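#struct-help
A.M.: can someone run this one for me? Single chain, 346 residues.
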Amino acid sequence: MVLTRFGDGELIEVDGSKIKEDLQAGMEDASDRGKIAPLRSEDLDRLYEICTRPGKMVGVEKGNEIIMTGDSPSIGSVPRGFSVNRLQMLQTYERVCGMDTAESGFIDYSYKAVKTVATEERSWVEQASHLLTIPLFYGAMPDLGRYSRPDGPVHNWAELLPQGKIGESRDAQEEAAEYCIKDLVYVASEMYEGGAEGIDFDTTGAAGDADFYAALKAAEILKEKYPDICIEMGMAGEFVLGMHGRLTYDGVRLAGLYPHEQVKLAEKAGVTIFGPVINNNSKKSFAFNLARAVTYCRACVEAANIPVHPNVGLGVGGVTTVEVLPVDVVSRVSVAMAEVGKADGL
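D.P.: on it. Structure tokens below:
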């Protein structure tokens, strides 16, 4: 019998044959949904070994180490339980947690919100860049929904769609995307010129295909403006929601794209690092979710010509959906993504 987890973090004990069954089922689910190649039998054997390896925490073999990029430590991810300012949080992230990169961000993690305080944030980024040795990113969400009423300037497509006003809904999303592109470019330009080594478009596509479109167009403009800029694009879900349904980029329809298809458009737009997301099913086992995530990641890596850093946080990338993440889960996901998923980073 093997101690493992359920997708909601519950600790369970199962027979090794059950883990093998779940690994196979998770891999087949991803292969079928994404229309991608399944893992090889030796890959599944390796995942089984990782899942059943003794010890609470596991690690990669020497030579298989990969780097880590992280989002929003300066707004509360670490540390917790004691009072420090944002600069000290970033220093803790670097000097205590040993991160390879750091990311600064505003408490309201949206480019639309940051626009109103961009000058102050730029000054703060300048200070942080002088204190850190590791590369400093500035990140927030494109957050297209912020541009809809009552808080934004355009009609709310979530209200128009149930009324059957499809054309008006599409027009509203296209108008919102133009506002969003301007804000992404403006804020990213301020922070990059202020000393940030990279820009993060976090949770891209959360509001659907128009959200993804806005981030792609902004990346294209920024890359032309600053050829050496590093842009990391982390997605919101494993496939792009077709809230609009007809939007295209470089002639490719955005709705319904999976990670191995998303990354090709990100490359064309000028994105430097791509972060695919694979959703966790809390009703399935850890083994099922892990195999599923690794299958998607492997296909994304094989399709990409840029570094791929899969999201492996709360409820994504095979990580269980529970507030305090179990170290046995996180370490096994990290090993699996590095050694089987062939990720360039996490």
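A.M.: thanks! The longest helix spans residues 166-194.
D.P.: also worth noting: DSSP finds eleven helices and nine strands in the chain.
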